[in-house]
Amino acid sequence: MLDLLILAGFMVLILGSGVFATNIYCQIAYNRCPACGAMNAKRRSECRKCSALIA
Ligand SMILES: [Zn+2]
């Protein structure tokens, strides 16, 4: 029973760190459009969805 709890905790930790790493990666590689919230690559100066300027 304890083994199962440790395993479950470990799985949550792995999944959590995966989500965390994805968030970090998105923050590094992408900008979020302030107008519509779409993800845009850093090199873009205009949103690909609504053409708003991205600072
Ligand atoms: Zn936009």
How is this structure best described in words?
It is a single chain. With 55 residues, the chain is mainly alpha-helical. It has one domain (2-41). It contains 1 helix and 2 strands, in the order H-E-E. The protein has one helix at residues 2-29, and strands at residues 30-32, 39-41. A two-stranded antiparallel ribbon has the order 1-2. A hairpin with a 6-residue loop joins strand 1 and strand 2. It is rod-shaped, with a radius of gyration of 18 Å. The termini are far apart. The structure holds zinc ion. Residues 33, 35-36, 38, 47, 49-50, 52 line the site of zinc ion (ZN).
Rg result = 18 Å
Q: Order of strands in the sheet with the most strands?
A: 1-2
Spatial shape: rod-shaped
β-strand percent reads 5-15%
Structural class by helix and strand composition: mainly alpha
The domain tally reads 1
In terms of per-residue confidence, which ranges show pLDDT below 50 for 5 or more consecutive residues? none
Helical amount: 40-55%
Count the strands? Answer: 2
Largest sheet: 2 strands, antiparallel
Report the average pLDDT across residues.
93
Q: Provide the succession of SSEs.
A: HEE
What is the terminal separation in angstroms? 52 Å
Bound molecules: zinc ion
Number of helices: 1
Write the layout of secondary structure elements.
Blueprint: H1 2-29, E1 30-32, E2 39-41
Antiparallel strand pairs: 1-2
The site of zinc ion has 8 residues, from loops.
